[in-house]
Structures are given as structure tokens and as C-alpha cells.
What we know:
By secondary structure, this protein is an all-alpha fold. It is built from five helices and no strands.
Amino acid sequence: MFSHLQDEPGGALASVLTTPLMVSLARVAYQWPSTDPGELLRAGGRVEIRAS
């Protein structure tokens, strides 16, 4: 996921993760080994990512 953020700094995921709140929410939501943060890459646009 980090390479995606570096490759697409203006992408939907990067734009959602610009606030400390969204970074914190993503961190809490995907801290467990059974979760897949890659689903954020498959979500599509900003609205879908925020709803994930």
C-alpha cells in the first residue's frame, strides 16, 4: 500500500489519508492480521474509501 501512495500521491487514497483523523481510523481498522488494508486500493474513489 505504501508503494501505491508513493506512485500516486494525488490519487484517491492519498487524498483521503491527508488528515490525522483518517490516518488514525485506517490504522485502527486495519491493525488486526485478519484485516486487509488492500481493500482500500480496490474501493475506487474517495467516497468509497471513506465508507470502507
